[in-house]
Amino acid sequence: MLKKVKLIIICLLIGWQLRAQSNVNDYPIAPVNIQDVHLTDNFWLPKIKTIQNTTIQFGFDKCKEEGRFNNFLIAGGKMQGTIKGFPFDDTDVYKIIEGASNTLITSPNKKLEAYLDSIITIISIGQEADGYITTWHTVDPDHPPVDWVKPGPRWVNEISSHELYNAGHLYEAASVHYLATGKKNMLDIALKNADLLVKTFGPETGKIHAPSGHEIVETGLVKLYRITKNEDYLKLAKYLLDVRGDATTHVLYGAYNQDHLPVTKQDEAVGHAVRAVYMYAGMIDIAALYENYDYYNAAKKLWENVVNKKMYITGGVGARHDGEAFGDNYELPNLTAYSETCAAIGDVYWNHRMFMLSGDAKYFDIIERTLYNGLLSGISLDGKKFFYPNPLESDAKFTFNRGAVTRSPWFDCSCCPTNMIRFLPSVPGLIYAVEKDTLFVNLYASNKAAVSLNKQRIDVAQQTEYPWNGNIVMQVDPETATTFTVKLRIPGWARNEVVPGTLYTYLNKNNKKISLAVNGKPQASVIKNGYVNITRKWSKGDKVQLTLPMEVQKVKANDSVKDDQGLVSLEYGPIVYCVEGVDNPEVKSLVISDKAVLKAEKENGFLGGVNTITGHVSTIENGVTKKAELKAIPYYAWANRGVTNMKVWVKREP
Fold this sequence. Notes:
seven-stranded antiparallel beta sheet, 3 domains, globular, Maltose phosphorylase, domain 3, alpha+beta, Glycosyltransferase, single chain
């Protein structure tokens, strides 16, 4: 079966390279597929195994318990009953299938594969004869499951009905399932639905001229295009973006849905943050495939706005609980931060596409910051509890997490847990990328990978304890000696750049130099666009040694961020730290001096094995200063030891 799957994927890749006779292009840079990257590290691999061994089945059990499967059976007339949940609950099932399919690519499992087949059969029962599939609407379109969705015929209330959002997640999941298994059972459901959308939406007379209310169908259609080469799907994805902000075609949904201006005229990230970043990812797909520079230039302006004015130090985006939305420029509250897990995931998808189109490492600086901090914080260490929002402060009183003051085992709106399930198993696909005769090394984690350059297989192996230290050894084994370029990303933190912009800066510069050697011989480490380039004739057994010196660094925010004035946060390598009350009883009164000497040390048996930051600091309460001992932990690991208060930003003493 594994050989069969590899053959299918190779054929698909060849097809993508040849392309149909059309005006469609593609990204100049391609990621190395997760099936060709096998993690051996102690950081990401255990977390992915937790998803595989615990969270996938946990999620499916929750879907069963809360009626997600029954909704499809009721829609298909196989059960009696009423729809439970939200109008978008179909997607929870789709997202878990996508995550499970990603695990099948690297860890074949006949039992899991058969289980997915049984669920896909249930999904097929809920599909109408013409391909339509949104269970709540099929069962009772006149009585939506929530009062904020208006009743009515198909798609007339797309602003809130989530019909196209459901379709988008179906397409994303079906594409991964097909690539993982070679089976068409879920793909056929998706294609039947996509064909219906092609007949229904578009610029032609008699079709619906309106965009999706919650974006993601755009990137889903692109994925179906990649498999089928049916350009109708790609044209529809572009149309659903082109029609946004066009008041001559429909009553505009407004800024909340990113439907206030044409997408090429938008230059500030506004509205629902998850919808926004999904839309921006779709814009880059269209920019790449149609060489649409208007789309690309607009996306760059939006990116500059987010990175310079609307992003948390953890990489999280979305400041407001109200509307799950971006706030104004520099509006970044800590206690009431929303920073939804889904938004962090969507932001990674967007930045990855920006990288594939440009080759600039700054987009991976954002990906890395988000991955290790504001995204990974969304799931507990045991894989059974979750954050929906990811605040940067907790007083153990404010019920920020949809009614809870700490992690929850599930939510009535369970988009974040299921999105985490679909995303985490795909992380190995972010490590490497290729362009002609160039290999990009974008993330550091112990792994073994097989890469194709110049029609030749090249085996690559990394050994590292990253992110706990910056020592990386990479062995390069081409089939025969050949010349190509290896581009090693030098993270922004190693270049004394917190983020590629002006939102955050380091108070203390790391003056230690980056060290680079090939086969023991020192190499110049000239950095261009965030990379050190090594071009040489590579032979079997060649080794690259890269050392990225880490030290505890103190961060201050731009003066325009009022909530962070007079405060400081801590980092070590790519990890953002926080202080919890369980370790620091006087969290509220802690003060870190600019002169405080802090050190990072590994605690192997603590929180799964992490570096903690310790040192002498002080507390100031009622004007009285006292000496204190600091213990800071990685932000992603907070709230794994019960309810406690927490801060990322601590009082600063200049």
